[in-house]
Amino acid sequence: MILRTISEELVPVDTRLVVHSLHEIPLYNEDLDGDGAKAPEAVRRLRQAVLEADGLVIGSPEYNHGMSGVMKNALDWLSRPHGQSVLKAKPVLTFTASPAFTGGVRAQQQLNETLWAIPVELVRYPQIVIGGVGSKIAQGRLVDDAVRQFLEKGLLELRAMIPQL
Fold first, then answer.
1. Which residue numbers delimit the NADPH-dependent FMN reductase-like domain (predicted)?
2. CATH number where 83 lies
Protein backbone atom coordinates (compact mmCIF):
# COMPACT_ATOMS: atom_id res chain seq x y z
CA MET A 1 0.00 0.00 0.00
CA ILE A 2 2.82 2.38 0.81
CA LEU A 3 4.76 1.49 -2.33
CA ARG A 4 1.61 1.88 -4.41
CA THR A 5 1.03 5.34 -2.94
CA ILE A 6 4.66 6.27 -3.61
CA SER A 7 4.53 5.05 -7.22
CA GLU A 8 1.17 6.64 -8.03
CA GLU A 9 1.25 9.87 -6.03
CA LEU A 10 4.59 10.82 -4.51
CA VAL A 11 7.44 10.30 -6.98
CA PRO A 12 9.00 13.41 -8.54
CA VAL A 13 7.55 14.33 -11.94
CA ASP A 14 10.60 13.16 -13.89
CA THR A 15 10.64 9.80 -12.11
CA ARG A 16 8.87 6.49 -12.58
CA LEU A 17 8.65 3.82 -9.89
CA VAL A 18 7.86 0.24 -10.87
CA VAL A 19 6.74 -2.01 -8.01
CA HIS A 20 7.99 -5.60 -8.16
CA SER A 21 6.44 -8.44 -6.20
CA LEU A 22 8.67 -10.86 -4.33
CA HIS A 23 6.04 -13.60 -4.12
CA GLU A 24 7.64 -15.86 -6.74
CA ILE A 25 11.20 -15.64 -5.40
CA PRO A 26 12.22 -19.05 -3.99
CA LEU A 27 14.25 -19.50 -0.83
CA TYR A 28 17.87 -18.62 -1.45
CA ASN A 29 20.02 -21.60 -2.39
CA GLU A 30 23.52 -20.95 -3.70
CA ASP A 31 23.51 -24.39 -5.32
CA LEU A 32 20.68 -23.18 -7.60
CA ASP A 33 22.57 -20.02 -8.47
CA GLY A 34 26.28 -20.66 -8.87
CA ASP A 35 27.57 -18.00 -11.26
CA GLY A 36 24.09 -16.54 -11.68
CA ALA A 37 23.28 -18.29 -14.94
CA LYS A 38 21.34 -21.09 -13.22
CA ALA A 39 19.17 -18.83 -11.07
CA PRO A 40 15.42 -19.51 -11.13
CA GLU A 41 13.45 -17.50 -13.71
CA ALA A 42 11.76 -15.26 -11.11
CA VAL A 43 15.18 -14.34 -9.72
CA ARG A 44 16.57 -13.60 -13.19
CA ARG A 45 13.60 -11.29 -13.88
CA LEU A 46 14.11 -9.45 -10.59
CA ARG A 47 17.85 -9.11 -11.18
CA GLN A 48 17.21 -7.72 -14.66
CA ALA A 49 14.71 -5.18 -13.32
CA VAL A 50 17.21 -4.03 -10.69
CA LEU A 51 20.00 -3.88 -13.26
CA GLU A 52 17.88 -1.63 -15.49
CA ALA A 53 16.79 0.65 -12.63
CA ASP A 54 18.57 3.94 -12.00
CA GLY A 55 17.76 3.71 -8.29
CA LEU A 56 15.59 1.73 -5.88
CA VAL A 57 13.03 2.25 -3.15
CA ILE A 58 13.02 -0.71 -0.76
CA GLY A 59 10.39 -1.02 1.95
CA SER A 60 9.84 -3.64 4.62
CA PRO A 61 7.52 -4.23 7.53
CA GLU A 62 9.12 -5.05 10.86
CA TYR A 63 8.58 -8.61 12.04
CA ASN A 64 10.06 -9.79 15.35
CA HIS A 65 12.49 -6.85 15.53
CA GLY A 66 13.81 -7.32 12.00
CA MET A 67 13.06 -6.92 8.32
CA SER A 68 10.73 -9.44 6.74
CA GLY A 69 12.19 -12.81 5.83
CA VAL A 70 10.89 -12.33 2.29
CA MET A 71 12.92 -9.12 1.95
CA LYS A 72 16.08 -10.69 3.39
CA ASN A 73 15.69 -13.61 1.01
CA ALA A 74 15.34 -11.29 -2.00
CA LEU A 75 18.41 -9.32 -0.92
CA ASP A 76 20.38 -12.56 -0.60
CA TRP A 77 19.50 -13.44 -4.22
CA LEU A 78 20.25 -9.90 -5.42
CA SER A 79 23.61 -9.79 -3.62
CA ARG A 80 24.92 -12.72 -5.67
CA PRO A 81 27.00 -13.82 -7.47
CA HIS A 82 29.58 -12.55 -5.01
CA GLY A 83 31.20 -9.35 -6.25
CA GLN A 84 28.75 -9.08 -9.17
CA SER A 85 25.58 -7.93 -7.41
CA VAL A 86 23.13 -5.97 -9.54
CA LEU A 87 22.66 -3.82 -6.42
CA LYS A 88 26.32 -2.78 -6.21
CA ALA A 89 26.59 1.03 -6.08
CA LYS A 90 22.84 1.51 -6.80
CA PRO A 91 21.24 4.52 -5.11
CA VAL A 92 18.67 3.15 -2.63
CA LEU A 93 16.04 4.74 -0.40
CA THR A 94 14.71 2.49 2.36
CA PHE A 95 11.68 2.69 4.59
CA THR A 96 10.12 0.46 7.20
CA ALA A 97 6.68 0.38 8.76
CA SER A 98 5.20 -1.12 11.88
CA PRO A 99 2.04 -0.89 13.96
CA ALA A 100 4.35 -0.08 16.90
CA PHE A 101 5.24 3.53 17.65
CA THR A 102 8.89 2.80 16.77
CA GLY A 103 7.98 2.41 13.10
CA GLY A 104 10.25 -0.51 12.44
CA VAL A 105 13.48 1.17 13.51
CA ARG A 106 15.09 -2.22 14.20
CA ALA A 107 14.07 -3.49 10.76
CA GLN A 108 15.45 -0.26 9.26
CA GLN A 109 18.82 -0.87 10.91
CA GLN A 110 18.93 -4.50 9.78
CA LEU A 111 17.87 -3.59 6.24
CA ASN A 112 20.46 -0.83 5.95
CA GLU A 113 23.20 -3.01 7.44
CA THR A 114 22.49 -5.71 4.87
CA LEU A 115 22.51 -3.16 2.05
CA TRP A 116 25.76 -1.56 3.27
CA ALA A 117 27.40 -5.00 3.06
CA ILE A 118 26.48 -5.42 -0.63
CA PRO A 119 27.38 -2.33 -0.97
CA VAL A 120 24.73 0.08 -2.26
CA GLU A 121 24.65 3.89 -2.07
CA LEU A 122 22.08 4.54 0.66
CA VAL A 123 20.09 7.72 1.08
CA ARG A 124 21.33 8.52 4.58
CA TYR A 125 18.73 11.13 5.48
CA PRO A 126 15.90 10.96 6.00
CA GLN A 127 15.71 7.52 7.58
CA ILE A 128 12.06 6.72 7.05
CA VAL A 129 10.35 4.68 9.76
CA ILE A 130 6.57 4.73 9.80
CA GLY A 131 5.12 4.05 13.23
CA GLY A 132 1.46 3.31 13.91
CA VAL A 133 1.13 2.47 10.25
CA GLY A 134 -2.39 1.06 10.55
CA SER A 135 -3.81 4.48 11.38
CA LYS A 136 -1.99 6.06 8.43
CA ILE A 137 -3.53 3.87 5.72
CA ALA A 138 -7.07 4.30 4.39
CA GLN A 139 -8.66 2.61 1.38
CA GLY A 140 -5.33 1.07 0.38
CA ARG A 141 -3.45 4.38 0.39
CA LEU A 142 -1.04 6.15 2.69
CA VAL A 143 -3.01 9.21 3.83
CA ASP A 144 -0.91 10.70 6.65
CA ASP A 145 0.34 14.07 5.38
CA ALA A 146 3.44 14.20 7.58
CA VAL A 147 4.60 10.75 6.44
CA ARG A 148 3.81 11.57 2.81
CA GLN A 149 5.94 14.73 3.04
CA PHE A 150 8.77 12.80 4.68
CA LEU A 151 8.64 10.20 1.89
CA GLU A 152 8.62 12.94 -0.75
CA LYS A 153 11.77 14.42 0.81
CA GLY A 154 13.44 10.99 0.72
CA LEU A 155 12.43 10.51 -2.92
CA LEU A 156 13.96 13.87 -3.82
CA GLU A 157 17.18 12.86 -2.05
CA LEU A 158 17.20 9.58 -3.99
CA ARG A 159 16.56 11.43 -7.26
CA ALA A 160 19.48 13.76 -6.52
CA MET A 161 21.80 10.74 -6.19
CA ILE A 162 20.93 9.47 -9.68
CA PRO A 163 23.22 10.86 -12.39
CA GLN A 164 21.50 12.80 -15.16
CA LEU A 165 20.69 10.60 -18.12
1. 3-128
2. 3.40.50.360
